[in-house]
Design goal:
- With about 350 residues, the protein is α/β, with parallel strands linked by helices.
- Helix 3 packs parallel to helix 4 and helix 6 runs parallel beside helix 7.
- It has an eight-stranded parallel barrel with strand order 1-2-3-4-5-6-7-8, surrounded by five helices.
- The chain folds into two domains: about 250 residues, Aldolase class I (TIM Barrel), CATH 3.20.20.70; about 90 residues, Up-down Bundle (Chorismate Mutase Domain, subunit A), CATH 1.20.59.
- Strand 3, helix 4 and strand 4 form a beta-alpha-beta unit.
- The structure holds phosphoenolpyruvate and manganese (II) ion.
- Phosphoenolpyruvate (PEP) binds next to helix 5.
- The site of manganese (II) ion (MN) has 4 residues, from loops.
Length: about 350
């Protein structure tokens, strides 16, 4: 994929800040929100949903085409470039006609290749910047697939928006951040800017600052934060929206760290610490290889004695003793359990191979 960045398009220093209401509700609300966020001096583009993908029917589904004119007026009043969500060819046509500067594809659209292809096809010959939210399910290939469909249609300026993933887990977040997926996307496409959407990850305004800081510390290129002149009265996503003044406060308290430093002492010290890490990683891997060799022998021995691979008691014993030991050494319990599960899984695979001469990885 050939990519130009949204920060270049907007001609701003990272982190980029996009803000505005979840939905454009009325002309007054759209323009007042735009004016107040512009007055913070921190926002680079105005967002507002015009066509809203709601989970249940009967909820506010957006102002439709008329709302585009409110966005255009807000741009005239503030000078802020405008961005909205498109989900089909009719949306694209209306948004282009109105003069929207940047489009985005929502999470519930990214999940459907037919819809993404329809949007991509309707953009042929128009090189407008497009931001692609992650699909609602944690499927990196689907996210990349959407970006590729747009790229093939000739879109060159793109960004990804990380807005978290649906889950039945009842945790503190509306959508699980699953940062690893965003990190993997960044690793695969270093040129692609990723903008974090802490509002849809949090679902709750109290967590926005925390998620925003974490995103910046993971070197994300910017933030998309929902704001509203009267959040509690918002017609969609009321709990997660903040007033423009709270937005200004959150943003001014964020610590923006640089991705690297040219400072010699920093580089030398980091180099030494990384040498230690490299050395320890070598040791861990050697020990791991030695451990698997023993698993292989155990597999052979169990085979000769016609004994099953799994002995639940032994597995429980391993978990209990290792978790206690690692806890005493200050390691996180969740991490220890995850690591043990991975090692145990591989050990079973190795024994399975010896016992049944199979190559199938499950
Ligand atoms: C939105 O940005 O208001 C929205 C509908 O988000 P998502 O596509 O992330 O659900
Ligand atoms: Mn929203």
């Amino acid at each position: 994929m050939k990519l130009k960045s949204i920060s270049q398009f907007l001609n701003v220093q990272k982190p980029i800040l996009i803000s505005g209401p979840c939905s454009a509700e009325t002309e007054e609300q759209t323009i007042a929100t735009a004016k107040q966020i512009a007055a913070t001096g921190k926002v680079h583009a105005l967002r507002a949903g015009i066509w809203k993908p709601r989970t249940r029917p009967g909820q506010y589904e957006g102002a439709g085409d008329v709302g585009l004119q409110w966005l255009v007026s807000a741009k005239k009043e503030t000078g802020l470039p405008i961005t909205t969500e498109v989900a089909n060819a009719a949306h694209v046509e209306a948004a282009l006609k109105a003069g929207v500067d940047i489009l985005w594809i929502g999470a519930r659209t990214t999940v459907n290749p037919f819809s993404v292809q329809e949007v991509a096809d309707s953009l042929k010959g128009v090189d407008i910047p497009v931001m692609v939210k992650n699909p609602v399910n944690p499927d990196l290939e689907l996210w990349i697939g959407a970006l590729e469909r747009l790229s093939k249609a000739g879109i060159t300026t793109m960004a990804a928006i990380h807005r978290g993933f649906s889950s039945s887990e009842k945790g503190p977040f509306r959508n699980l951040p699953m940062w690893d997926i965003a990190i993997e996307l960044k690793t695969r496409f270093p040129e692609l800017e990723i903008i974090c959407d802490p509002s849809h990850i949090s679902g709750n305004r109290d967590l926005i600052a925390f998620i925003s800081q974490k995103a910046l510390d993971l070197d994300m290129a910017g933030l998309m934060i929902e704001s509203h002149i009267n959040p509690d009265a918002a017609w969609s996503d009321a709990k997660q929206q903040v007033t423009p003044s709270v937005l200004g406060k959150i943003v001014s308290e964020l610590v923006v760290r640089k991705p690297d430093s040219e400072n010699k002492t920093f580089k030398d010290t980091l180099g030494l610490l990384r040498e230690q890490i490299d050395h320890l990683d070598d040791e861990i891997m050697q020990k791991m290889a030695a451990r698997m060799k023993i698993s292989e022998k155990i597999g052979q021995y169990k085979k000769e004695n016609n004994v099953t691979i799994l002995q639940v008691n032994r597995w429980e014993e391993i978990i209990k003793t290792r978790v206690a030991l690692c806890k005493a050494m200050g390691l996180d319990e969740g991490f220890t359990r995850d690591l043990l599960r991975l090692v145990h899984h591989e050990s079973i695979q190795v024994q399975e191979k010896v016992m049944n001469k199979t190559e199938v990885k499950v």
